[in-house]
């Protein structure tokens, strides 16, 4: 059975794993659609439908927001995408919060001299801005964005870059993420993988199908397991 008895670092995906960024993302997306005349001043987008698309990137969220409409012209998508990102950067941490249990988990790691960092497909600039707003930028040992390496997750490049930056071998790392791409990226380099059941899970693609080594339904559950297995008392 996979365990966390000897890991030296824990790396996290950002959106849907470390922080609940969806409230700010959907506010910016709705405003971009209003400004473009795609929805009325008092209309809203289908939140439940959009949530699983966060892990697939901003452009996927824009396309998904059209719901039953035919796929619009690529130029329209691009224009909305650019407007969406600009609005998101303006209010990147208005409503975004760390998930309950994340801060105790990070504190526990830090108190024991265990390294933690971020490997996300979110572009590096907004990732840095968000982590700074949350007070985490100086605490993270590494921050790898979706444009930091030649290819984004699920390719192994971002994970390998993170390992290089923290000088720790992949097999000594636990990688936590809320999407199949996270698990595939972690497994591709030989890291111990944890599927985050508290994130933006697509009901059509449940964590049980991702092949993660460990599943946790909450950060508290992950911390409890790390406490038991990483520093278990000797008999």
Give a description of the structure.
- The protein is α/β, with parallel strands linked by helices.
- The protein has 2 domains: 9-20 and 97-230, HAD superfamily/HAD-like (Rossmann fold, 3-Layer(aba) Sandwich), CATH 3.40.50.1000; 22-90.
- It has 9 helices and 8 strands.
- It has helices at 22-35, 47-50, 58-64, 74-90, 102-111, 124-133, 157-166, 180-189, 219-230, and strands at 9-12, 19-20, 97-98, 115-119, 143-144, 173-177, 192-196, 214-216.
- Strand 4, helix 6 and strand 5 (143-144) form a beta-alpha-beta unit.
- Helix 1 (22-35) packs across helix 4 (74-90) and helix 3 (58-64) packs across helix 4 (74-90).
- The longest helix has 17 residues, at 74-90.
- The radius of gyration is 18 Å and the shape is elongated.
How would you sum up this structure in a few lines?
The protein is α/β, with parallel strands linked by helices and 235 residues long. The protein folds into 2 domains: 146 residues, 3-Layer(aba) Sandwich (Rossmann fold), CATH 3.40.50; 69 residues.
CATH topology of the largest domain: Rossmann fold
Shape assignment: elongated
Radius of gyration: 18 Å
Query: Low-confidence stretches at least 5 residues in length (pLDDT < 50)?
Result: none
Strand arrangement within the widest β-sheet reads 5-4-1-6-7-8
Mean pLDDT: 94
- Helix and strand sequence: EEHHHHEHEHEHEHEEH
The chain-level structural class is alpha/beta
**Main sheet overview:** 6 strands, parallel
Enumerate how many helices there are, as a single number: 9
Q: Termini distance?
A: 20 Å
**Count of the domains:** 2
């Amino acid at each position: 059975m996979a365990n966390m008895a000897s890991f030296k670092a824990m790396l996290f995906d950002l959106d849907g794993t470390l922080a609940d960024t969806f409230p700010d993302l959907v506010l910016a997306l709705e405003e971009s659609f209003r400004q473009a005349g795609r929805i009325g001043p008092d209309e809203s987008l289908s939140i439940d439908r959009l949530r699983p698309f966060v892990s697939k990137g901003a452009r996927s969220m824009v396309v998904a927001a059209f719901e039953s409409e035919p796929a619009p012209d690529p130029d329209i998508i691009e224009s909305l995408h650019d407007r969406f990102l600009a609005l998101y950067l303006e209010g990147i941490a208005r409503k975004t919060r760390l998930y309950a249990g994340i801060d105790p988990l990070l504190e526990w790691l830090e108190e024991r001299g265990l390294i933690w960092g971020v490997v996300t497909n979110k572009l590096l600039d907004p990732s840095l801005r968000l982590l700074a707003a949350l007070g985490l930028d100086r605490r993270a040992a590494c921050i790898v964005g979706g444009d930091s390496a030649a290819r984004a997750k699920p390719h192994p490049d971002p994970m390998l870059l993170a390992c290089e930056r923290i000088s720790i071998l992949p097999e000594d790392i636990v990688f936590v993420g809320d999407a199949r791409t996270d698990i595939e990226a972690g497994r591709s380099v030989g890291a111990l993988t944890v599927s985050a059941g508290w994130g933006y899970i697509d009901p059509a693609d449940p964590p049980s199908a991702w092949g993660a080594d460990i599943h946790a339904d909450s950060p508290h559950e992950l911390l409890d397991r790390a406490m038991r297995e990483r520093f278990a008392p000797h008999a």
